[in-house]
Amino acid sequence: MDIQKYEAFLKTIELGSITKAAEALCYSQSGISRMIQEVEKELSLSLLERGRGGVRLTAEGTKLLPQMKTLCNAYQSLLQQAGDVKELTAGLIRIGTFSSVATHWLPSIIREFQKDYPNIEYEFLLGDYREIEAWIREGRVDCGFLCLPVRPDLDTIFLERDDFLAILPATHPLAQAECIFLDALCKEPFLMLEKDKNAEIADFFRREGLSPNVRFTTWDDYAILSIVESGLGVSLLPRLILKRIPYQVAAKETVPSFHRDIVLALRDRKTAPLAVRRFLEYLPHR
């Protein structure tokens, strides 16, 4: 199918004149007339009435006009998509992330993304929330996973609410409880997940008027799991990090409960590189 003749037909209807359509599309009048005739021949219908005042649609032409517009719009969309695919034959996506997302979300997202864009390369920078936010603002990464709140000048996509759970040795007496009251955790040696200003667990205890017996402080989730498994203390960790772990620990909901809101952040979704904008479409595959 020659789509140009349908575009010429639509332009003629839009401008109401074969002469004006020819000028707009840089064709001769005879060329436009010939393309219109080809459309009518292809459809075996008379679509235009020609007169001194210009052209107008016949009843048949009026009925088919919406489908012709849909056809031409779909063709332009096809060309746009084809151009995008050509642009994505190579590229680099730089992602700032923390360990639980890097471990449990990114492999699934990238696996699906690579099915459509196999030549894209990736660079992961692991850090804490403060570092990742700075990397995004500085342009060191194209996008990054963060937890709310974030700076208002960043564009964010909400992904998931992630509850914090109490983590205890599998043999701990509280491991058989249905849920764990926070004041009970304060009586045990506590492993604090914290780094610099990233102190959401400490802030939560503070809001509840509680003081845990902190014996270890680290930003390494897996180090905490290993130490808890060894029976050296208890902790609070996000549910996400507990997927498919090899450690023998008990994970219990807490009273009161609290959570973190995970988002993907970038400077501006509209001006992000094409590869990044396409990557965003695959976030549901996490």
UniProtKB/TrEMBL annotation:
Instruction: Name any one Pfam family assigned in the record.
Output: LysR_substrate
| InterPro entries documented for this protein | HTH-type_LysR_regulators, LysR_HTH_N, LysR_subst-bd, WH-like_DNA-bd_sf, WH_DNA-bd_sf
Q: Which GO terms describe its molecular function?
A: DNA binding; DNA-binding transcription factor activity
Q: Keywords of this protein's UniProt record, alphabetized?
A: DNA-binding, Transcription, Transcription regulation
Please name the PANTHER family in this protein's record: HTH-TYPE TRANSCRIPTIONAL REGULATOR BSDA, HTH-TYPE TRANSCRIPTIONAL REGULATOR YBHD
Sequence similarity: Belongs to the LysR transcriptional regulatory family.
* A GO CC term assigned to this protein in UniProt: cytosol
Organism of origin: Anaerotignum faecicola
Q: Where in this chain does the record put each HTH lysR-type domain? A: 1-58
Q: Record's CDD domains? A: PBP2_LTTR_substrate (cd05466)
Return the protein name: LysR family transcriptional regulator
The uppermost taxa in this organism's lineage are: Bacteria, Bacillati, Bacillota, Clostridia, Lachnospirales
